[in-house]
Design brief:
31% helix; 8-stranded parallel sheet; alpha/beta
């Protein structure tokens, strides 16, 4: 039996205690831990709405409704993985580069211990220092769900924003571009080459949201699994890939996106991949009536956690 498991909500009410992800124990140790949920309350690199620094708390609060058995993936991940809520990274508000250093520094011991980090953001640029923390493992395949490429060269003349992190990560050799893919792109562009440059210049594959809707979830997840192959992989999920009708609490909303159901099914379909990390980012509770965005983000994180458990079960 794993050492660290959630509080039993059949024995204690969900509204009691300090909110942690899925009511997991808040533990600042890596011994006997397989997966750590870590908050990254950072939103200094946004270019539109701010407030993602409050996302980790909102997602934790919503996650108290999570029950341990996942019928869609036929797994109770907490019977397979020892999981903890590791708390938050102490970022430096208003300072992008110093915050990146703190995120990388905070994640290095987690990665070095062989623990899978599951990050709750925070703006999307926090993925860059997360990938830096995995540098010793070599480039990783990034499966990115997002309305936007996040591969622009600069914003307002600045190289480090939530819209440029993917390009920076590729330039730093952190991304296995031949096995990486961006899914769900939509909305207006600055230039016709904004999407085509992903493949023509950077070597990434991509699936626009219109194509996803046309071919369906099963075809897309099959294409993702084929693209990743045997590479070590990382899921980065920007909640704005979901239509704002289902996820209004985000920084850069785009009309015409995924439903909550489609988003969950996309994650569930990625079984068999060797994941070394996950993140769910860009939740802003100030724009989230009723907590619907935070609830979806919590459930997406649980599906990712379940993928790691299924993979462990298959290999045991």
């Amino acid at each position: 039996m794993p050492r660290y498991v959630p509080e039993d909500s059949l024995q204690s009410p969900r509204f009691t205690g300090v909110p942690t992800f899925a009511r997991l124990p808040y533990v600042r140790t890596l011994q006997d831990v397989d997966l750590a949920v870590i908050g990254v309350p950072f939103d200094t690199a946004t270019t539109y709405r701010t407030g993602g620094r409050f996302g980790p708390n909102a997602v934790r609060a919503a996650s108290v409704m999570i029950r341990p058995y996942n019928p869609a993936q036929d797994v109770n991940p907490f019977e397979i993985l020892s999981c903890v809520d590791y708390g938050d990274i102490a970022i430096v508000p208003g300072f992008i580069m110093r915050s990146y250093d703190e995120i990388e520094r905070g994640l290095l011991p987690v990665v070095d211990a062989g623990v899978i980090p599951l990050l709750i953001g925070g703006d999307h640029s926090c993925t860059l220092p997360h990938l830096r923390a995995t540098r010793a493992r070599g480039p990783v395949a990034v499966i990115m769900f997002d309305s936007h490429t996040d591969a622009w060269d600069s914003y307002f003349g600045e190289k480090y924003t939530h819209g440029t992190w993917m390009r920076r990560a590729i330039e730093e050799g952190l991304v296995d571009v031949g096995h990486s893919i961006e899914v769900g792109l939509r909305g207006q562009l600055y230039d016709p080459g904004d999407w085509t440059s992903l493949s023509d210049e950077l070597g990434l594959d991509y699936i626009p949201c219109r194509d996803l809707m046309r071919v369906g979830i099963d075809a897309v997840t099959a294409r993702i699994r084929d693209r990743v192959g045997d590479a070590q992989a990382f899921i980065s999920f920007d909640i704005d890939v979901v239509d704002p009708a289902f996820a209004p609490g985000t920084g850069t909303p785009e009309a015409g996106g995924l439903s909550s159901h489609q988003a969950l099914e996309l994650i569930r379909g990625l079984h068999g991949i060797d994941f070394i990390g996950f993140d769910v980012v860009e939740v802003i509770p100030a724009y989230d009536p009723g907590g619907v965005t935070a609830t979806l983000a919590a459930n997406l994180a649980f599906e990712m956690l379940s993928l790691a458990a299924v993979r462990r079960r298959q290999r045991s």
